[in-house]
Automatic annotation (TrEMBL):
<feature type="transmembrane region" description="Helical">
    <location>
        <begin position="357"/>
        <end position="375"/>
    </location>
</feature>
<keyword id="KW-0472">Membrane</keyword>
<keyword id="KW-0812">Transmembrane</keyword>
<feature type="transmembrane region" description="Helical">
    <location>
        <begin position="247"/>
        <end position="264"/>
    </location>
</feature>
<feature type="transmembrane region" description="Helical">
    <location>
        <begin position="169"/>
        <end position="191"/>
    </location>
</feature>
<keyword id="KW-1133">Transmembrane helix</keyword>
<feature type="transmembrane region" description="Helical">
    <location>
        <begin position="33"/>
        <end position="55"/>
    </location>
</feature>
<protein>
    <recommendedName>
        <fullName>Gustatory receptor</fullName>
    </recommendedName>
</protein>
<feature type="transmembrane region" description="Helical">
    <location>
        <begin position="284"/>
        <end position="306"/>
    </location>
</feature>
């Protein structure tokens, strides 16, 4: 966090910035590692305590038992609870020190930290993502404050507050206050991991464009050693993404699904629920914040696939500028290896997250929103 602030101050003052090495170490990462499964008894204990506090409001909202002892539940609360439980459990069990060590080891093998432009790309984009993420959370937090302000104390001519109402109210405040730091840290972690893959692809694209530009302008002879090194670097990036995918594929599934759910439910609430005007207005801004959050996460992951496709045409063209049979064999092996699957993360192992996936996700979400009035009238 301090590094981000220093770099931001330097950028705003237009001073020359000496960017540090690429790193995904952050306050968000350390916060989640404290409650991760790799922290032994302490981590597991803290995880259970925090999980209980975050989900405490569901104890009185999720399950309602009436006087005749019949069981009832709110389907939307069940879905919300399931998404939250999935995401927090995933970060506890999958995002641990062992996973980070493996990812960092794969990144360090690529060896690109010496390049100033690479470091600049990582830190400037990381700061932009984080600023936008924080901005997306502000209207959501303000909306919750409005709701708490107008929901308690509740007194009217027909109804009065009860001990259960007070319990619901204070549990909601407690769980919300604890939830926001962890939810924000989860978003930051996912984007940081995506940026780690992005920066490696940015580096190889820059190198390929430089080599291609030199050949076109000066007519130099192709250096097969350089192309061989770039092909090997591309394979190393593939291995980095594969290592990250053991966590990232499930994390993208959980977080994207959760935020799509929020967008749909918020639209339903705005369209059909009767609310106090200040809450109605704050709900609109909160919905925009959640939509921005969804776009940031999706964009950070989709950019990996887009950037992974950019070097291939140049790499093919440069690689085949040779008459060496040995080099052609190396090229064939390279094409064979990368032909299995594209570089990128998937939606829970089901679909590669590409621009087409994003368009499909948007169309499905819009279709559900359009269909909501039909379900409501039925």
């Amino acid at each position: 966090m301090m590094t981000d602030i220093k770099i931001l101050k330097s950028l705003l003052s237009k001073n020359e910035v000496n960017y540090p090495k690429v790193s995904i170490d952050s306050l968000s990462s350390r916060l989640n590692l404290i409650v991760s499964s790799s922290n032994g008894v302490t981590g597991n204990g803290l995880f259970l305590v925090i999980l209980s506090l975050i989900f405490s409001r569901h104890l009185t909202i999720l399950i309602k038992i009436s006087l005749d002892s019949t069981f009832s539940f709110n389907p939307l609360e069940v879905l919300h609870f399931s998404f939250q439980l999935f995401n927090f459990s995933l970060f506890h069990f999958k995002y641990n020190q062992q996973f980070l060590d493996k990812v960092i080891a794969k990144y360090q093998v690529i060896n690109i930290d010496y390049d100033h432009q690479t470091r600049k790309f990582f830190w400037t984009h990381r700061i932009i993502y984080r600023i936008l993420l924080i901005l997306s959370y502000m209207p959501q937090a303000l909306h919750d404050m409005h709701v708490f302000k107008h929901s308690w104390p509740h007194q009217s001519a027909t109804s009065a507050s009860t001990p259960n109402d007070a319990l619901d109210y204070w549990l909601s405040i407690l769980s919300t206050a604890i939830y926001y730091p962890f939810a924000l840290s989860q978003d930051i972690i996912l984007i940081d991991l995506a940026m780690l893959s992005q920066v490696t692809l940015h580096n190889i694209n820059d190198k390929l464009n430089a080599v291609s530009g030199e050949l076109q302008v000066e007519g130099n002879k192709l250096n097969n050693k350089v192309i061989k090194m770039l092909r090997w670097q591309y394979l190393l990036i593939h291995r980095l993404v594969d290592e990250s995918s053991s966590f990232m594929n499930l994390a993208t599934f959980g977080l994207i699904s959760h935020y799509v759910y929020f967008v749909i439910v918020d639209f339903y609430t705005l369209a059909f629920d009767k609310q106090i005007v200040p809450i109605k207005i704050s709900s609109m801004f909160a919905s925009m914040g959640i939509l921005l959050e969804l776009c940031l996460i999706t964009h950070s992951v989709v950019a990996i696939y887009i950037k992974s496709q950019q070097p291939l045409p140049i790499l093919y063209k440069l690689s085949f500028k040779t008459y060496s049979f040995h080099v052609l064999n190396e090229i064939s092996l390279f094409l064979y290896r990368i032909g299995f699957n594209d570089i990128g993360f998937s939606f829970g192992g089901l679909f590669m997250i590409t621009p087409d996936f994003t368009s499909t996700l948007a169309l499905v979400t819009i279709s559900i929103i359009i269909a909501i009035p039909s379900f409501h009238s039925a």
